[in-house]
Amino acid sequence: MVETLSIAVIGAPGVGKTSIIRQFIYNDFSEVYTPTQARYVYRPSVILNGNMYDLKILDVPPISSFPSSTSQEWMDLRCRGVRNANAYILVYDICCVESFEYVKMIRQQIMEHREASGSEVPILVVGSKRDLQRHRFTPRRAVSVLVKKTWKCGYVECSAKFNWHVVLLFKELLGIAVARGLRQNHTSIRLQGALQRNRCSVM
Ligand code: GDP
Ligand code: MG
């Protein structure tokens, strides 16, 4: 049976969420900023440790807060599927402190939701636009320690522009999700490049 993992990608506008997803799936990057107006679902398949997973990647448009109830989720189309995602990728721009504040807020709200639902949802925090690191607002280590040690979340920095650590971040998240939720045995996760257009990649 093929497992389906839904992953919600959340972050402030313009941090590079769509670019990360499209680089992962299509090996594609655009300098032109096209704001994501509506929620978009990508459905690639990947192979991890010899097991196939259907991913449902939700590219979540700007939301002011994590949906606090099922009815709020249903009233706001942008949030559909966000509350029950199997995992979260929270993206901030390493040059924009406000985008990190947004991630802090969303992560706090997910924790509150998680407490209520009692589930251990994997969260990966992603620092995007690593190619612009000369303009970063704080040293990598400061964020990494906070995220890993205090929040107990995964942390990866990437550049969608140069396809740097993009596949790695999905591999990290899937590794955590599989370890926590699906209890597969842990052989090393091998990576053979990003997904080809229209479908399956071996990770
Ligand atoms: P979203 O609103 O979070 O989905 O952001 P987008 O993916 O649409 O990207 C917003 C802008 O940032 C676009 O102009 C992208 O070209 C640019 N961008 C995205 N990723 C990177 C990156 O890794 N490096 C640089 N320099 N620019 C990026
Ligand atoms: Mg977008």
UniProtKB/TrEMBL annotation:
What's in the keyword line of the UniProt record?
Nucleotide-binding
Per its record, how is this protein called by name? RAS-like, family 10, member A
* Record-linked Pfam families: Ras
InterPro entries given in the database record:
P-loop_NTPase, Ras-like_GTPase_Reg, Small_GTP-bd, Small_GTPase
Keyword Nucleotide-binding set for record: yes
Going by the entry's taxonomy, the superkingdom of the source organism is recorded as Eukaryota
One annotated GO molecular function is: GTPase activity
